[in-house]
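Supplementary Methods S3. Complex input for the iron/sulfur cluster-bound model.
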Amino acid sequence: MTAQPPRISFVSLGCPKALVDSERIITRLRAEGYELAREHAGSDVVIVNTCGFLDSAQAESLAAIGDALASNGRVIVTGCMGAEPEKITDRFPKVLAVTGPQQYESVMEAVHRAVPPRHDPFVDLVPPQGVKLTPRHYAYLKISEGCNNRCSFCIIPKLRGDLVSRPISDVLREAERLVAAGVKELLVISQDTSAYGVDLKYAESDWKGRRLPSRFVALARALGEFGVWVRLHYVYPYPHVDEVIPLMAEGKVLPYLDIPFQHASPDVLRRMKRPAAQEKTLERIARWREICPSLTIRSTFIVGFPGETDEDFEQLLDWLDAAALDRVGCFKYEPVEGAAANSLGDPVPDAIKEQRWHRLMQRQQAVSARRMKRKVGTRQEVIIDEIGPSVARGRSKANAPDIDGSVYVASRRPLKIGEIATVRIERAEAYDLHGTVVGF
Ligand code: SF4
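Predicted complex, serialized as structure tokens:
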């Protein structure tokens, strides 16, 4: 009889990019015969993949490490916070190892030291697409690591280094495997998706007998050929982004753009050192919508950035009215330790940040509600994520998983997870839509 395989409990915190790191580590673990456990207690070791983007995320990561130590005692820490190991080891000297983001090899070494693998080539088979933490019908596709920008509020380039893109054939091979394994929606992620390939000088590589450049638009076009939903996240509005809009209009890529604008006042954007901040965004949004009327735009904003005046903030509100974005997230500025913006001075008092946050959310809600109402009476394709007792929950092309709302779907026939159904939209709420499957 074989001995019990070693068991690992895994905590994945942070953004979709960290989730992709977690998936890669788990794939390696499974390939080496480790088993995943649901509980810390009774596992051989706990891995905590941390997020260090905001102070609140760091606090959540530290709390998760504390929990794991209390309930298990054998803990390996990885992820963004691992880039500054003393923050962890000062507080938790008992952790077994601390490794940084994307240091898959170091995580595996630490695991091997803590609990050696049990080799059994017959049972240690990993499905060809790896192990995904996301449901089987959608998957995140990470096209690069790091970032060449230096936004003054952000420490990601410090933690993750400069942009390193994967060659286009490498990305397409992974996409092909995922699609072959049943994935119906690919979510393209990176810190700066439209900068893809800059570091490679857009080097060409072979893909199915063609030479393709490692460029954002070429990648979007090639992904569109797989015939699954392709959703683009973290796209900065560099001029060449215009070229992807016709692909959306043709149905090759989902008509959805996630563009973190962060602000609209030129002064604030300059102090934030944002990429592509001078690109006449309102005119471009209008042009994009002319070419692709069904385009959904999601964005995030920061209020209370150092030196943000009442005029800057009013300018942002007016811009939001004019841009009529579909989905907006808003953060109150937090001075992340190590960020260049901390030395800008002129901090905005917390009470004013709070006030501005409420005003922005309120103002945008009216815009979003108007955009949502336009969907009532239309037919939308909806990908089913979850089957409930009376209705199913899914997403239209306008909803990304985890960050946008849902479409609640009634149906006279049984639905399947991952199926794409045509739904007549009957009702709109602030974030969600309700409708019924058309036909049988
Ligand atoms: S684009 Fe700016 S905010 Fe985004 S990761 Fe790069 S430096 Fe940070």
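The chain has a mean pLDDT of 90. The longest strand covers residues 379-387.
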